[in-house]
Amino acid sequence: MIPDHSKNVIEVKDVSFAYGENLVLKDINLNIHKGDYIGVVGPNGGGKTTLIKLILNLLEVKKGYINVDCKNLAYVGQKASNIDSKFPITVGEVVNLGTDKHLAQKAMGDVGITDLKTRMIGTLSGGQLQKVFIALALAQKPEILFLDEPTSGIDQASQNDFYKLLKKLNQEMGITLVIISHDVDVITKEATEIAAINQSLVFYGNANEFVKEEHGIKFIAAHHHEEHHSTEISHTHHD
Amino acid sequence: MINLFQYDFVVRGLIAGIIIAIIAPIIGIFLVLRRYSLIADTLSHVSLAGIALGLLLNLNPLLTAIGATTLSSIAIEKLRLSKKVYGESALALFLSGSLAVAVILISISHGFNSTLFNYLFGSIATVTQNDIYTVLTLGIVVIISVAILYKKLLFITFDEDAAKVDRINVNLINTIFIILSAITISLAIPIIGILLISALLIVPILTALQFKKSFIPTILIAQALSIFCVVAGVIVSFYFDLAPGGTIVLINLIVFLIVSIF
């Protein structure tokens, strides 16, 4: 399926948002086209998740407007990294939540988790869990799929596997992808467009351009610093 | 030894208890997984006000309790959604507020102490034939409603944001669910007593979760355990002359301990 990249599926116009007095987003203007693969990057607290939640109508737009011109959206939140491992549910039951059995079966096949169908979700690895959430989203036949930090807490091999799956969803199934990621290096390689948000939209365009741009360098440099820091922390957790 | 089944009130108590044991886990599992366990306590205190009002006005206390808990549950949900107060604070407001109303109603009427005592701690002797019909009818309403909403409720419980994005009317379903909880809690009052109701909704589910089965099997295990505990509790309390509500809850806790150890 070749998506019509000229078709505007989401229009974000002059959107600002504050939690109480705390301004999180300021004058955001952004168009998402059918078939795009957008990486959303920016510092913690920069407003990435807030913007996605506004688009998904999980938060109310109070200033500006957002127009969504497509039937089905699906959202994979940060749930997978802090899943309740005691939740009494199997993989098959999870994927079946928003759909019928036939679509659930197909979604599990597309993601490659059919063999996990009867496993309890509490017994899965981070990478497997994330695929379950993708299958749940896919079973809703989305035109646009939003993912919030999908690779956090997943090992390197599973991450590569996961990005391959995302590429398949985008290129073969024509699903528009919007992915929030802290991993600026990886997402600039994987996504075709980058939206860098730090309260305002500091960059929005081709991923290759972003790497060359001043903002991109700053983001990547900041990310490396952060990564170094988090490595130190994770060392202290190893026993 | 006296045959306890020769007493009609014991049989009535057992029938009502078994119906409650079947319904309570269906509601309880969603309360536990959504971290709503405290709602059961709040609504049971609200039901005390409803019962006091019923006794004062000479109406069926079970029905006034259902009325009070249903209205309050809708108000709690509205207050929670308005975000004017924190979720648990909304519960605290209703818990203390309804207790205050109950205490005032009790003081106005001076009388009904022994009847009220039965409602506070549960007594199978308070279960009338009419209560059984009410418990059975509303029990069926609860089971059918949850069966219809099952998938949506489960989706909301598992991932509320994803459910909203999938265009599930989360607010409506949450409101219906909290009304069903209110009905269930009111129904359980004659058997288990106001002060111990939340245990019947929560403990069997906590025990069943230890078996690490999927959703429906967890509910079925909780129902089986709950029926066992109610029947055992009624029998033990009859022969040893104990309060049935407390006995049923203690047996539930013992079963929980045994299962979590092994």
What characteristic shape of chain A results from the CA principal axes? globular
Largest sheet of chain A: 6 strands, mixed
Percent helix of chain B, as a range, is over 70%
The number of helical segments of chain B is: 11
Helix-and-strand structural type of chain A? alpha/beta
Number of strands of chain B: 0
Strand content of chain B: under 5%
Return residue spans of chain A where pLDDT drops below 50 for at least 5 consecutive residues: 229-239
List the helices and strands of chain A in order: EEEHEEHHHEHEHEEHH
Shape of chain B: globular
Largest interface, C-beta within 8 A: A-B, 27 and 21 residues
Could you give the topology of this structure?
The complex is a heterodimer of chains A (239) and B (262).
Chain A: E1 8-19, E2 22-33, E3 37-41, H1 48-55, E4 63-68, E5 73-76, H2 91-95, H3 101-111, H4 126-138, E6 144-148, H5 156-171, E7 176-180, H6 184-190, E8 193-198, E9 200-206, H7 207-212, H8 214-237
Parallel strand pairs in A: 3-7, 3-8, 5-6, 6-7
Antiparallel strand pairs in A: 1-2, 1-4, 8-9
Helix pairs in contact in A: 3-4
Chain B: H1 8-33, H2 37-57, H3 61-82, H4 87-109, H5 113-121, H6 129-158, H7 160-165, H8 170-192, H9 197-209, H10 215-240, H11 244-261
Helix pairs in contact in B: 1-6, 1-8, 1-9, 1-10, 2-3, 2-4, 2-8, 2-9, 3-4, 3-8, 5-8, 6-8, 8-9, 9-10, 9-11, 10-11
Describe the structure.
The complex is a heterodimer of chains A (239) and B (262). Chain A is α/β, with parallel strands linked by helices. In chain A, 38% of the residues lie in helices and 26% in strands. Chain A is built from 8 helices and 9 strands. The C terminus of chain A is likely disordered. Chain B is an all-alpha fold and 262 residues long. In chain B, helix 1 packs antiparallel against helix 8, helix 3 runs antiparallel to helix 4 and helix 3 runs antiparallel to helix 8. Classes of the chains: A alpha/beta (239), B mainly alpha (262). At the A-B interface, strand 5 of A face helix 6, helix 7 and helix 10 of B.
